[in-house]
Amino acid sequence: MSRPSTFSPPPGTRSRTLATPRGPFAALDAGTATHGTALLLPGFTGSKEDFIDLLPHLGAAGYRAVAVDGRGQYGTPGPQDDEAPYAQTELARDVLAQVAALDADGPVHLLGHSLGGQIARATVLLDPAPFRSLTLMSSGPAQISKSQQQRVRLLRDALAVMDMTQVWNAIQLMETPEDTETGALDAGPGDRDDLRRRWLAGSPAQLLATGRQLCTEPDRVAELAAVPLPKHVVSGDHDDAWPVPLLDEMAIRLDARRTIVAGADHSPNTDRPLETARALVAFWNSVHSVDGENGRNGRNGRNGVDDAGGVTR
Asked: Which of 299 and 89 is assigned the larger pLDDT?
């Protein structure tokens, strides 16, 4: 799971609820939309706090950034036992409702991290009209890697016989010294308490349904490539969920801008937030520049080296 440096909103960020016809969604709303608005979707076992270190940098660049908890994630309620509301199409309809609730002045930049990227993809395939661009962060073309599928299946097996507290305790016992060295364990008890609180607030039905999606997601890159939105594929230079060369290939198939954030793993948003924010802003600025010259179109401004210290292809 992503491990944000804090669960406390930074200055200039307000915790709020997006009221929609599909129910309330907990959100962190930061910045002023001088240049535009972005909606940020977290990944599997994650929450809106996974973007908390990005928000001040995006706001300083003139973007309003709104990070949300999806249905059944942390601060957003969802059924505990019924998996039907967590079908991918239902989650995509949730995103469309969230965008409408933002009351943004024009189309919105959509970003999804990991599972959130697959939900974002399903959303723009359902209706691209509310969006100005799509960024897939550490989110690949189809199902997750075999090793990560095994981890998800272990979690699903555990949830079949344990409650959320028991599963959390089992996860802690399974962590290894190598996890500590790579940052998988937290810096201190306060961080662990926050992560435990987030875990216990989540819905087991949401984890079961979305975990199954991660293990069975088909390749929909060709469908997405036909959607006339500027696209951006972002990742760290190492990723266990989708190998980096696979993300490179997906970006080519999408004719997308490609950014690799040096020194980041599966969560560049928490590993290297400043560098990741710079890459996002550079892409969004390029989209606005193209919009100003030619109107909305699919050009992506792909070549060169971005401001993130990563490679843009």
From this structure: 89
pTM score: 0.91
Q: Which of 59, 47, 67, 39 is nearest to 135 (CA)?
A: 39
b or e along 120-133 (b: 16 or more beta carbons within 10 Å of the residue's beta carbon)?
Answer: bbbbbeeebebbbb
CA proximity to 72, closest of 63, 60, 84, 54: 84
Tell me the C-alpha distance between 206 and 85, whole Å. Answer: 8
How many Cβ atoms sit within 10 Å of the Cβ of residue 244? Answer: 15
- In contact, 53 and 270? CB cutoff 8 Å: yes
pLDDT tens per residue, range 198-234: 999 999 999 999 999 999 999 999 999 999 999 999 9
> 211's torsion region: left (phi>0), alpha (psi -120 to 50) or beta?
alpha
Which phi and psi angles does 305 have, rounded to 5°?
A: -115, 125
* pLDDT the model gives residue 240: 95
195 to 47, 50, 179: CA distances (angstroms): 10, 11, 16
